[in-house]
Structures are given as C-alpha cells and as structure tokens.
Amino acid sequence: MNFLTGFWYAAGWSSEITTRPLARRILDQPVVLYRTEGGQAVALDDCCPHRMVPLSYGTVEGESLRCGYHGLRFDCAGRCVEVPGQTSIPPRARVRAWPLVERWQFAWVWMGNPEAADPALIPDLPWLDSPQWTCATGCVTYACNYVLLLDNLIDLSHTSFVHRSTIGTDAVARTPVKTAAEGDCVRVEREMHDTEPSRLYQKAGDFKGRVDRWQRIDYWPPSRVVIDAGAVSVDPAEDGRRINTRVINIITPETSRSTFHFWAFARDFKLDDRSMTDFIGDSLLVTFNEDRVLIDHQQRMLDERPQQRMLDNSADLGVVLARRMIDRLLRDQAAASGAD
Fold first, then answer.
1. For 126-333, which CATH superfamily applies?
2. Strands 29-35 and 41-45
C-alpha cells in the first residue's frame, strides 16, 4: 500500500520518548525514537548500517545513540561519530534521521521529503494544552488498515449497537446526518433533540433527565478526526446544565494491516476531578477495544473476499468523501513523484 508521506504523523506521545530507545514502525518503516540527555527527541532509521541490527537495542549516551551490537555511535542527524577500534569513519556509516517536532503533547514525525517538513503544517490541537480543558489520553493498536479506522470514526451510527455501555444510545443511529466537504475537511453533523443521555454523559454531566445532544465530526487528511460532542439538559430545573468535549483521534499507520490510534478525550468541566478523568479514560478504552475487535475481524474478512465490495448507505457519505479525498491525494503524490 502507498501511504501519504507529505504530512506530519504522531510518532507517539511525548511522554513515551525517553532515554530508553523505543522501536516503532511508522508507514511500514522501522523507526527508533529516543530522547538525548539534553532533552531532544530524535527519530532515526532503526537499522545500524554495520550489521543491520536494530538501533533500538542500543543505549543513549549524551546526545548520541550507541548501537548495542558493535558499539557504533550516531549523532541526532544520523551521522556516525565513533567506530570502536578504528579512527576512520566510512562515509556509508550513517542512518536516516526523520524530522521530529514536539507539539500538543505529541512527537510528530515527517516521513516524506525532509526539505518539505514545515512545522507550521502540524495540526492545531489547542485543547491538549489549554488550562480551560483537561484530558484523558491513550493509544490503541488495531490489526487493520488505517482507512477502516477512519471509517469507524467518521460514521458514528455504529455506537448505538456497539457501545451501549458507554457512549451509544438509540438516537445516534436513527438521527439523520448532514455531511459536507469544504476544502480539505469533511464534516458530518448530527443533532439529537430531547433524548436520553448516554451512560458516560449521565455520569460526566450529572444529568437527571433528557438532553439535547450533538456530534460534529471533522476529518482532515491523512488521518485526523476531531469530534466536537456535548449535551445540554432540556429540564428547566437543571438551568441549562451542559458539557462540552472534544474527542481527538490521531491515526498513524504502522503497516498496511496495523494502525496506531492515539486518542484524547478533552473536557471543559470538572477540570480538577481526577476520578472523572480516570472514569472517562476507562470508558474510552472499553469503547475503543469494542471497536478493535470488530474492525480487526472486518480486515480479515476483506482479505478473504478481495472481490466483494462493501455496501454504502446514506450514513456513509462522510466515509465516501474521506476515501475520495485520500485517493485524490495519493494520485497527486504519485504524479508529483513521477514528475520528479
């Protein structure tokens, strides 16, 4: 599978990158992530050119990474700066360094042409750093192509059937959606009036009765989905009690059949309530693992039936538009590569 390379992808949460090297596969490329003793986060090709052993088995020494097999040492730009037992360093003794920038609690890696790696292109996720919001965060790994996970996040009608213990209610599936594509964004909107809150919303918002609830799902290529979701009480006795949330989904393909889902659930209420953060985090893990079981099986079924085409319905328009956008960008990328 061809991946879109001219974008920033989440290599991991910044907190995951330490002075202990971390092996990670991104766009089917082996990458070693580590933090120097001076605090710089680095991403290198995870393969020592000497005997092709993963550098992730090595150790951080100051501002460099030493191979754990024969001790060659590499700086943050991937240049070999020491070969034990000899003074000369062969010109081929270097590894590729991938541009890596830390922002919004993520470490973002650029897997394309490094000269095009403009940090201004990193997605804006202000809820992750704002004092007016607090977050539960995590990561789930799926055994599927990343596009199947995008389908799942863009079309939330499945929550009525898959996630009844957390975020799903009957109203989600039966409420029509409005879908539009503007520029490089696909938006799917659902407004649910005078409806029962989900179990998660009942606890999060302390709602005693029915609510007006909304979902505004925005997709930007290649793999970012932000869901503006919330509810407001329709009971006059609750004086407009409301909750606002953002479900932030940053999807990074590991291979053509495995995907990292970095997620954050941001909220603007009960900011100092650690028990609420834990409750939401536990609920989201249940939710995403319910998705994972189904989507992993979906991938296996697709592999077994390559000639069978999936059936679309009216709720799938956002999914169709997102897939068309990815296909167009892949064609543009191939054309640019051919011109080069």
1. Naphthalene 1,2-dioxygenase Alpha Subunit; Chain A, domain 1 (3.90.380.10)
2. antiparallel
Q: Which of 234, 239, 240 is nearest to 209 (CA)?
A: 234
- Could you tell me which of 149, 110, 100 has the C-alpha nearest to residue 258? 149
The pLDDT tens digits of the residues spanning 288-340 come to 999 999 999 999 999 999 999 988 888 889 999 999 999 999 999 999 887 65
Fold of domain 8-121: Rieske Iron-sulfur Protein (2.102.10)
Angle between helix 317-339 and 146-154 (nearest 10): 140
126-333 shares the fold of 8-121 = no
Phi, psi of 174 (to 5 degrees): -90, -5
pTM of the model: 0.94
Contacts of 31 (CB under 8 A, 6+ apart): 11, 23, 24, 25, 43, 44, 45, 46, 98, 109
